């Protein structure tokens, strides 16, 4: 029998039972645009309404109705559902739904069972079936790998599956699992990382599989139109890469708030500063995060001390901010500073949302508001932006490119627009956040790009097509990099009406990306609508050790 890290053992023992009641509040995982896992509430109907377990809580009618509904397309529940169907088989799933057994779990909450893991789901958890399966039912067990036999304790019930804590890996997959690779003492308890026990090559292969499945499930185009998904591009840094961290803590209860002032040098018991424990909304106290950069880790201790000292002052939960930045006290003007000097390359940690951060990407400098969006893994930005450049101007092309104009939609602080600007005569960017646009314009100046060449405006992405009407569509590339929810129909309609020669779609959610690309290609079947060919799809690993994958798809107009 394989031993499991003590953190897993602790997780198995200490899950708060109130969190795992049948029909009680359960949590659904969601990922923010920068890949951070957050948990929000979803209500599940009782798995066996006729025989409630002793932990059963009554659901309101509204809660029941919500739980009975199928998941929103492309949501993390829907992505999981597709994985469940692939494990259980469509016929069995259909039969269970028809026979109304799809919500009737064969297991009790807190029951311990043995399961065999069939696949690693796209959300990063193992998807298993019970060893003595009598009805089609799956069990989702985080931190497990295909081929493993594990013991799990059920803590949540949902449609055709239960979710359990990993108690023991009975038969490990020794080809894949190696616990000596784990570099974080919180791995197994913290909800942030899923893959530290895997080799980096295996992580990249699993991420490619996620992209393959996303296009299979959400991009319903003919198989001959679907290019082979390329290998996932690695991150140069696999630990110490995160340039942003947002640990949080809950406020003390009213009683504690009103009680006597606590000593300021001892961490009160209620105060846990960190990330959500796996599968819960309970905070795990953390003092370090090995995937975050060194300056962030150096700042965690002093910030924790400050929070502990002032803990009596908090009446609301707080999300802390740690941003790795070049030292903004040094003038960024290339005439006054050597950008290769130690002074310019000194890193500091910014904790105030309103302060300015600075990063270098290739030869370009970017400044942005610490509270606004910027990609969270600086090490991967040169390969990512180079890949997008080569996708627009393929180095293997035999003819010189005719592309002279770039439209950067959802442009943030101007990352792609500015890095790619040397290759275009004119560049226009659009972004909803006025703050980011202010910085995009500032960044153009910081990098000596003229106002005649580059312009940024704030607004909804679809509005850009009215602005760039004078851009010659045969010479224009459009870059799309939307938030996790993807593009809306208005945007896609306007994109197709504009009809640029090349579209590069960068996405932090490959499922909505696949859905949007299907829509772009489907619309092209209509009379008079621009047609596109999906040329390539490639994952990029912006978040090593986690299940997250970024994806870049390239579409060329069919003339
Ligand atoms: C994934 S980020 C990409 C930012 C930028 N391309 C980068 O790499 O730094 C998505 C950006 O879209 C912006 N955004 C969200 N909804 C938008 C909309 N409807 N129109 C334009 N921008 C939007 C967000 O503020 C965010 O900056």
TrEMBL record:
Pfam families cross-referenced by the UniProt entry: tRNA_U5-meth_tr
Region (Disordered): 1-70
Active site residues per record: 508, 508 (nucleophile)
Species of the source: Ephemerocybe angulata
Assigned protein family: Belongs to the class I-like SAM-binding methyltransferase superfamily. RNA M5U methyltransferase family.
Record GO terms (molecular function): tRNA (uracil(54)-C5)-methyltransferase activity, S-adenosyl methionine-dependent
GO terms for biological process, alphabetical: methylation; RNA modification; tRNA processing
Keywords carried by this UniProt record: Methyltransferase, S-adenosyl-L-methionine, Transferase
Identification of the protein by name: TRAM domain-containing protein
Biased composition (Basic residues): 53-67
Alphabetical list of PROSITE patterns matching this protein: SAM_MT_RNA_M5U, SAM_MT_RNA_M5U_2, TRAM, TRMA_1, TRMA_2
Record-annotated TRAM domain positions: 106-168
Residues that, per the record, bind S-adenosyl-L-methionine: 375, 410, 431, 481
InterPro entries in the cross-refs: MeTrfase_TrmA_AS (IPR030390), MeTrfase_TrmA_CS (IPR030391), NA-bd_OB-fold (IPR012340), SAM-dependent_MTases_sf (IPR029063), TRAM_dom (IPR002792), tRNA_(uracil-5-)_MeTrfase (IPR025795), U5_MeTrfase_fam (IPR010280)
């Amino acid at each position: 029998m394989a031993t499991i890290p003590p953190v897993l053992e602790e997780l198995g023992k200490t899950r708060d039972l109130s969190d795992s009641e049948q029909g009680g509040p359960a949590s659904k995982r969601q990922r923010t645009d920068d890949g951070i896992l957050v948990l929000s509430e979803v209500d599940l109907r009782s798995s066996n309404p006729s025989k409630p377990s002793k932990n059963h809580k009554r659901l309101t009618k509204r809660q029941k109705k919500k739980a009975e509904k199928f998941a929103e397309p492309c949501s993390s529940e829907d992505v999981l559902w597709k994985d469940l169907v692939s494990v259980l088989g469509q016929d069995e799933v259909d039969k269970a739904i028809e026979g109304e057994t799809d919500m009737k779990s064969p297991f009790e909450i807190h029951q311990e069972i043995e399961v065999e893991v069939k696949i690693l789901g796209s959300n990063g958890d193992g998807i298993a079936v019970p060893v003595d399966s009598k009805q089609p039912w799956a069990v989702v067990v985080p931190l497990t790998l295909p081929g493993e036999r594990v013991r799990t304790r059920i803590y949540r019930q949902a449609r055709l599956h239960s979710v359990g804590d990993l108690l023991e890996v009975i038969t490990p997959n020794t080809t894949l699992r190696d616990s000596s690779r784990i570099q974080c003492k919180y791995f197994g308890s913290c909800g942030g990382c899923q893959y530290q026990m895997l080799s980096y090559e295996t992580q990249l292969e699993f991420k490619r599989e996620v992209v393959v499945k996303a296009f299979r499930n959400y991009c319903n185009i003919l198989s001959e139109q679907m290019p082979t998904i390329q290998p996932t591009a690695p991150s140069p840094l696999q630990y110490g890469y995160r340039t942003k961290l947002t640990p949080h803590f809950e406020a003390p209860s009213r009683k504690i708030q009103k009680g006597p002032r606590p000593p300021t040098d001892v961490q009160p018991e209620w105060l846990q500063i960190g990330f959500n424990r796996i599968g819960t909304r309970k905070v795990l106290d953390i003092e370090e995060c090995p995937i975050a950069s060194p300056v962030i880790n150096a700042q965690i201790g002093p910030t924790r001390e400050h929070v502990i000292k002032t803990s009596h002052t908090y009446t609301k939960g707080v999300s802390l901010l740690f941003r790795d930045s070049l030292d903004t006290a040094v003038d960024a003007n290339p005439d006054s500073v050597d950008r290769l000097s130690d002074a310019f390359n000194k890193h500091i940690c910014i904790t105030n949302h309103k302060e300015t951060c600075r990063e270098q990407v290739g030869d370009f400098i970017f400044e942005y508001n610490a509270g606004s969006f910027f990609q969270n893994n600086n090490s991967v930005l040169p390969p990512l932006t180079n890949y997008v450049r080569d996708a627009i101007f393929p180095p293997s092309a035999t003819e010189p490119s005719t592309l002279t104009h770039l439209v950067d939609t959802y442009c943030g602080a101007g990352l792609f627009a500015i890095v790619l600007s040397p290759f275009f005569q004119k560049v226009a960017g659009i972004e909803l956040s006025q703050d980011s646009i202010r910085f995009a314009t500032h960044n153009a100046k910081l990098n000596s790009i003229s106002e005649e060449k580059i312009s940024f405006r704030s607004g909804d992405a679809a509005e850009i097509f009215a602005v760039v009407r004078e851009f010659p569509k045969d010479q224009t590339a459009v870059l799309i990099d939307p938030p996790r929810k993807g593009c809306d129909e208005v945007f896609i309609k306007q994109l197709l009406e504009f009809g640029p020669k090349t579209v590069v779609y960068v996405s932090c959610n490959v499922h909505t990306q696949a859905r949007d690309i299907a829509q772009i290609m489907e619309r092209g079947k209509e009379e008079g609508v621009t047609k596109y060919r999906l040329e390539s799809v490639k994952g990029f690993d912006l978040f090593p050790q986690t299940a997250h994958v970024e994806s870049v798809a390239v579409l060329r107009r069919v003339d």
